[in-house]
Amino acid sequence: MISTAFSVLFVSFLLLTLVLQFWLGSRHIRHVLQHRAQVPAEFAERIPLAAHQKAADYTVAKTKLGMLMLVLNAIVLIGFTLFGGLQWLAVSLVKLSGPGMLYQLSLLTAFALITSLIDLPFDYYKQFVLEEKFGFNKMSKGLFFGDMLKSTLLGAAIGLPLIWVMLMLMDKSGALWWLYAWIFWSGFQLLMMVIFPTWIAPLFNKFSPLEDDSLRARIEGLMQRVGFASKGLFVMDGSKRSAHGNAYFSGFGASKRIVFFDTLLSRLSAPEIEAVLAHELGHFKLKHIVKRICVMFIISLGFLALLGFLKQQVWFFTGLGVDPMLLASNDAMALILFMLSLPIFTFILSPLSSITSRKHEFEADAFAAKYSSADDLVAALVKLYEDNASTLTPDPLHSAFYDSHPPASVRIGKLQLSATAATTSGAIA
Ligand SMILES: [Zn+2]
């Protein structure tokens, strides 16, 4: 009875999410196309019409592919759950491997492999058709498959021991397993933040120290002004995969480092690079990174507690098309069902995370305006928008659900205000 009710709830939320996502996607496409003919007035002097139209076409193409993926993902999800895919997989694997830990690990591995195989043609299409068409793809096919092989091996090397510990905790540590699992998971996350920049990222990219002396002096000046100590400034060979440019800040404690994509350095002037970095340092100095990590930990505690409850409920399994096993452990299956169903119930909440993240972006922009220059940051953002073919005219509702950053016009409008305020107050003083 509860089981049927849960199935109905699950399908309803799936349909609701799907309809909502389709509505947002088609609004976005319509909005972008409506503004395609003309560069918005505030950008008219800086962005050529051809670049604006390329951004519109790129956005529409990406959004359409995204909508196609939504349908496919929904079909796969129903196939795995209510149409019995997972049930069949579990029964077949338990026959092969017996009811022990080997069954649980092979169930999770098989699930991960099947989903990656389903995604593969789409990832390939996105890289070699869509990105290629707009001139962003710099990857050879060898690199694409090499990356895939590397991440699969790395995923197995890190993921399997991790999952093994989680399953042991679920099985052996009693009613409060979710609390122990949370402590373990949080520790692992912190460890990853420390080892990712120095151990994992270099498996995929080359990092070389920033060699431009005058730029380095400028950046060190900025770091001194804001009071920031870093282990190093690095340039990453992002250009071997994509023409998209970026700068990021990674690591934690002693391992923190600033990384510039080579694509970014080649496009921006020294003052613009400084302004972009000032924005990134703003995130750090204003404790956005620590806050984000804390929120992530609190949410994962809530989710693990919820999983602790759900894995005891027979309706959670049967409602999603799986008969719990009597002789083998159902923990791995509970993990899979949880990962599959959770996003269906939480998508509707995504604007909440966008709201906080936008607030942080405005604060980091204000920080950059204070310690560097608002005008340089605006110039850098305009170039980045143009180079990345990011649309300047997103649909506001679509943006509220999907974008961590505020729309360009809002962001740049605020920065320009603060730039004018700075010159006027300077003139008065
Ligand atoms: Zn930011």
Question: Which characteristics define this entry?
Answer:
single chain, 429 residues, mainly alpha, 4-stranded mixed beta sheet, 16 helices, 4 strands, 4% strand, disordered C terminus, binds zinc ion
Would you give an account of this structure?
The chain is mainly alpha-helical. It has helices at 2-34, 49-80, 85-97, 101-133, 141-172, 177-204, 213-226, 262-267, 270-285, 288-310, 314-318, 331-346, 350-371, 374-387, 396-402, 408-428; strands at 207-209, 232-236, 247-250, 257-261. A hairpin with a 6-residue loop joins strand 3 and strand 4. Helix 1 runs antiparallel to helix 2 (49-80). Residues 279, 283, 361, 364 line the site of zinc ion.
The topology string of helices and strands comes to HHHHHHEHEEEHHHHHHHHH
What is the global morphology?
A: globular
Largest sheet: 4 strands, mixed
Average pLDDT rating: 90
> Which structural class should the secondary elements be placed in?
mainly alpha
- The Rg value, from CA coordinates, equals 24 Å
The percent range for helix content is: over 70%
**Poorly predicted runs:** 425-429
